[in-house]
């Protein structure tokens, strides 16, 4: 299985680390033999149609930016789009930074991959939040798979849990803490009485926050995840503009202290209930299983038969999210092996 990796930030590096490690440990799953044939970044690409060896992947990572400086396989100035168009591969892994204004350049990367008959695995929320119904249709039309399990919950398999493990049930509602940064900020404010600004500065220092902190604190990141859950799990056809969204800027230390007196706290909750998709700071009891601290994420699925099921785990991080990419690659491999197109 030949892979073109587009984007070489923390998730991209995590993907090469995981695949190189598997190759060295000779892990075999149903004949899954992934080969990264190209990595495209903003400066150009490294391309080896026979596959970049684990040693080469390590060398590229050590050298860092610009990747096109590689003496053996570097190609300065070639665009990711050109790489997708011209390099032979079965899968494009798209892990460029999120852009929720127009979804670019990821939308163009994904559509070009589809047009050239390549499956896509992405961790990029932008294209899905803005155009998920259109992208899933385009994938079907081109007879290729689109997988995106790292977009919600990072390494924690929230989408798979709902889609597969709860397949025999009917999901009536979803509520969750889907953003690590805001959970960290609210936890710091309520447990350690740190101010909003100081907690945000800490979250940025620790590397949890998005490049543009408004993505996290104004609830856009959670809203993107709500869109993905609503479409993929609850068969809705919504985009970002359909989510009623409030962030955590207005949450005060006083409100958190008042909530604590009632044995509750305030969390940024993303929810889908009936026709309503929402992101809102919400008071919840400390005994609610959703009430997790720090950067953890948690999601509760309310089902018709099995009542409430809650999944808790890390919702961010390079290597964690890269493990979701590997999960998607294995899923596509299994589907191709059994020739089941869904
Ligand atoms: N900034 C996001 C978070 C990253 O804090 O959860 C994962 O989507």
Topology readout:
Elements lengths: L1 E5 L3 H16 L9 E7 L2 E4 L6 H10 L10 E3 L3 H7 L4 E4 L11 H10 L3 E4 L2 H17 L4 E2 L10 H8 L5 E7 L2 H13 L3 H10 L8 H4 L2 H15 L9 E2 L7 H9 L2 E10 L2 E10 L10 E8 L4 E7 L3 H21 L4
Parallel strand pairs: 1-2, 1-5, 5-6, 6-7, 9-11
Antiparallel strand pairs: 2-3, 3-4, 8-10, 8-12, 10-11, 12-13
Helix pairs in contact: 1-2, 1-12, 3-4, 4-5, 5-10, 7-8
The structure holds L-homoserine.
L-homoserine binds next to helix 7.
Note down, in words, how this protein is organized.
With 342 residues, the chain is an alpha/beta fold. The chain has two domains: 2-155 and 319-341, NAD(P)-binding Rossmann-like Domain (Rossmann fold, 3-Layer(aba) Sandwich); 158-314, Dihydrodipicolinate Reductase, domain 2, CATH 3.30.360. Helices cover 41% and strands 21% of the residues. The chain is built from twelve helices and 13 strands. Strands 4-3-2-1-5-6-7 form a seven-stranded mixed sheet, sandwiched between helices. It has a six-stranded mixed sheet with strand order 9-11-10-8-12-13. The longest helix has 21 residues, at 318-338. The two termini are 20 Å apart. The site of L-homoserine (HSE) has 11 residues, from helix 7. L-homoserine binds at residues 154, 179-181, 208-210, 216, 221, 315-316.
